[in-house]
Amino acid sequence: MRLKKLPVKIIDRLLFEDTVLVAKCFPLRQNIDAHRIMGYEPFPTIYWLSSSELVSAVSSLENRGYITKFGERLYQQREAKNAFLYDHVSYMKDRSELLRWGEGPKLVQEYPGITASFSTRGIGGIELQNTDLGGGLKCLHTHYAHYLASGQTRNIIGKWVAEELEKHCGISFGGPKREQVLWASSQDPVQP
User: Fold this and answer.
1) How many domains in the chain?
2) Does residue 17 lie in a domain region?
């Protein structure tokens, strides 16, 4: 059965000088099956890097092998590994909190089991069992988005990305401001 993916709902935005850096997304998104029956599916990435400049800069780090470099660094540094696991748990908690307001409780009740994978998946849907030895590190964009969204206090990988962006690209932020956008209209979706 083929599903048509619909945009996710944007709950919040993180701004810096009127540029949206990160969109905070509702953890479920709509889909329509081949019979035009509407349903929902998990959308595990709640912090979406939105600035095309940042996406390009982070992509350049990925292309230069930083996923592997950071994975090796996690393997070698026990404190970093512990922080990495804590970041995943923190992310899971944030995602669970989002399901407790708005239409979240109704959807969870209407679609039993839809959030089952959320108890085993951390940042960007990474399986927690794959985080051993730096495994499960697959997308620097989502780690960096989480880091920015946390006020630059959480996500060790996001912090390392920020350090490399500053060093190689001259990109840094002194503290983005927040603009609340509750359930943005369908004219303003994020298409993952």
Assistant:
1) 1
2) no
